Amino acid sequence: GQQVMQIPQYQHVQEGEDFTTYCNSSTTLSNIQWYKQRPGGHPVFLIQLVKSGEVKKQKRLTFQFGEAKKNSSLHITATQTTDVGTYFCAGPGSGGSNYKLTFGKGTLLTVNP
Amino acid sequence: KAGVTQTPRYLIKTRGQQVTLSCSPISGHRSVSWYQQTPGQGLQFLFEYFSETQRNKGNFPGRFSGRQFSNSRSEMNVSTLELGDSALYLCASSLGGAPPPEQYFGPGTRLTVT
């Protein structure tokens, strides 16, 4: 079945450093979504990318969707303590599983003030 | 607009018992998905319902079941609980459609099986 892999599993940075997490799918995706889960919280939707090669920015966050629509990345510039949490990517299934989202295992970001 | 609500928030059960979890979606959302979240396996899809019909099911044993009511509220049931069922169970609602649009998650139900 479809697999979505994320690396790294953990990332610890000093406040002000940059952070990047990578997401790779075993199949071509029609779109990819990113979520953030704060410690003790629930996943919150950040963004959806649809087009091949798409790049979207949200303040210090930059999201990219690969040309082949099988990979994506999230880059945070100058991290802050408020960025702490687990970042997940998620891709939809296809064929008979097209109402299902498959999540990567996430990247846990910790920030040292 | 009220968010997704889940009840109960915490639950402690014994092996062999069964449990029912409830999820009320955002008003107007007809799709409800359920996920199991554990430290080792991450977020795993259980099933998705839309207008009282299960449209997709994940790779979980038949002990895991669900249903959706006409008001879009959903319940999931786990029978014959096992220690490995201890997890955070999250439901998410959306407008529905394929591929799935952005999901709005509830706070989850933390289930502990002893």
Key phrases:
heterodimer; A: 113 residues; mainly beta; 6-stranded mixed beta sheet; 5-stranded antiparallel beta sheet; 11 strands; globular; B: 114 residues; 7-stranded mixed beta sheet; 4-stranded antiparallel beta sheet; 0% helix; 53% strand
Could you characterize what this model shows?
- The complex is a heterodimer of chains A (113) and B (114).
- By secondary structure, chain A is mostly beta strands.
- Chain A is 0% helix and 53% strand.
- In chain A, the strands form two sheets. In chain A, strands 2, 4, 5, 9, 10 and 11 form a six-stranded mixed beta sheet that branches. In chain A, strands 1-3-8-7-6 form a five-stranded antiparallel beta sheet, with no helix packed on it.
- In chain A, strand 9 and strand 10 form a beta hairpin.
- The radius of gyration of chain A is 14 Å and the shape is globular.
- Chain B is mostly beta strands and 114 residues long.
- Helices cover 0% and strands 53% of the residues of chain B.
- In chain B, the strands form two sheets. In chain B, strands 2, 4, 5, 6, 9, 10 and 11 form a seven-stranded mixed beta sheet that branches. In chain B, strands 1-3-8-7 form a four-stranded antiparallel beta sheet, with no helix packed on it.
- Classes of the chains: A mainly beta (113), B mainly beta (114).
